[in-house]
Specification:
Alpha-Beta Plaits; 252 residues; single chain; alpha+beta; 4-stranded antiparallel β-sheet
Length: 252
């Protein structure tokens, strides 16, 4: 899994000055809306909403904005969002999985297809990438928030929560679990009093491809175009982010 959390960490480090901050807010609020529609507006009885609010707060979405989103989503004039996913290949044969939340599927599929076609990729059929990606629980924790904990003891506690793999990377610890252990680990971290930077189910590639730097730039370009789309929530790929690629990204 090396490289996955590196990309997440870059986004965390740059997040405060990121010009796409408004879109981060929008995506967090969409997740709240979908969660309310699915399980109601009560955090205590709706785990998905509780998690969506937790992630929104970690992205510095103001409390009153979150409350307004919950109130609106539970009213008669709530936006009618649907969750859809699209699969395909980008430049140089890189697999790309695009998760969307939309109120207009026709608009969304047209936009996703256009990005694939315009930037050297091709849209595939649903299920075509099932053999490439495996859904995993992924929890990102700021290491400074667990600095006072004994490392060995804390790792043993994480084993009780169902951890599959730990990845220490600069300022963050990334905890991976099996998909079915996501809820268990989330509750376990709450019980331990550990605040997460993010907690979500992600699609992790089983094998990663290592492109040349010049190829990586064109791949990251198409990924950026997807992430710029207002309907897109998450983009996953099977490119290995090598040290050379990371250094080039951090230099930009």
């Amino acid at each position: 899994m090396a490289g996955h959390s590196k990309w997440a960490n870059i986004k965390h480090r740059k997040g405060a000055q990121d010009k796409k901050r408004a879109k981060v807010f929008t995506r967090a609020l969409k997740e709240i809306s979908v969660a309310v529609k699915e399980g109601g507006p009560d955090e205590d009885s709706n785990p998905r909403l509780r998690l969506a609010i937790q992630n929104a707060k970690s992205n510095n979405v103001p409390k009153d904005t979150i409350e307004r989103a919950v109130h609106k989503a539970s009213g008669a004039d709530a936006d009618n969002y649907e969750e859809v996913a699209y699969e395909g290949y980008g430049p140089h044969g890189i697999a790309i999985y695009v998760e969307c939340t939309t109120d207009n599927i026709n608009r969304t599929v047209s936009s996703v297809r256009s990005i694939f076609n315009k930037y050297g990729g091709s849209l595939g059929t649903n299920g075509s990438l099932d053999f490439i990606f495996t859904p995993k629980g992924v929890f990102t924790i700021e290491r400074e928030k667990i600095a006072d904990r004994d490392k060995e003891e804390f790792e043993l506690e994480l084993i009780e929560g169902g951890v599959e793999e730990l990845e220490y990377e600069d300022d963050f610890l990334t905890v991976y679990t099996a998909f079915e252990d996501f809820g268990k680990m989330n509750q376990h971290l709450e019980n331990l009093g550990v605040d997460t930077k993010s907690a979500e189910v992600q699609r992790i590639p089983n094998i990663r491809k290592e492109p040349e730097l010049s190829e990586a730039k064109s791949i990251l370009n198409i990924i950026d175009k997807f992430e710029d789309d207002d309907d897109v929530q998450n983009v996953y790929h099977d490119m290995e982010l090598t040290d050379e690629i990371m250094e080039a990204l951090e230099a930009e």
